[in-house]
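Work Package 4 report. The design task specified in the project plan requires that, given a folded chain encoded as structure tokens, an amino acid be chosen for each position. We show below one input record used in the internal validation round.
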């Protein structure tokens, strides 16, 4: 690791600390040349494989940009979108996947987006799952209604739940 101040090629770790959620390690480093200190943050890399085959680092910003259009005119704030992107990243990291494609990210977005705003969810799902008929919308809305019924009843394992799962 180069020293960011004098570009010396080496540095010494003086302190290591794991973040509260265990997802990253902060290291305090000192340059033996200029003696200045700096911090590095280490996280497991999460790569996204694009359709072209090129991989790029996972980006919450891209998740936000991906759903922003679907949320136009809806009561969804920038904070809501940031939180959604954070949940998407946490879900992916919790699954232990180090590399995934855009389709899988879309799949991970659907759940939290549905909780956030059902209209935005339908818009996003219609593009992402390539709805091409009224029947596709009807089916998706039927699932939403069934989920709502399940959520309002005391039985969490109702038939609507299973239907939704197979739908995704
Ligand atoms: Zn230095």
């Amino acid at each position: 690791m180069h020293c960011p101040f004098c570009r010396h090629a080496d540095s010494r770790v003086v302190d290591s600390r794991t973040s509260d959620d265990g997802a990253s390690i902060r290291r305090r480093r000192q340059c033996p040349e200029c003696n200045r200190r700096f911090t590095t943050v280490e996280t497991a890399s999460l790569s996204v494989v694009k359709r072209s085959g090129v991989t790029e680092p996972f980006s919450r910003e891209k998740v936000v940009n991906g759903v922003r259009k679907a949320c136009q005119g809806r009561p969804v704030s920038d904070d809501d979108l940031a939180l959604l992107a954070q949940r998407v990243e946490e879900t992916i990291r919790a699954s232990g996947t180090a590399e995934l494609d855009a389709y899988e990210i879309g799949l991970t977005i659907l759940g939290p987006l549905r909780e956030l705003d059902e209209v935005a969810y339908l818009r996003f799902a219609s593009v992402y799952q390539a709805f091409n008929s009224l029947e596709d919308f009807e089916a998706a809305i039927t699932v939403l209604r069934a989920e709502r019924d399940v959520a309002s009843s005391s039985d969490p394992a109702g038939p609507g739940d299973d239907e939704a799962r197979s739908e995704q």
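Residues 19 and 155 are 38 Å apart (CA to CA). Validation will be extended to a larger panel in the next phase.
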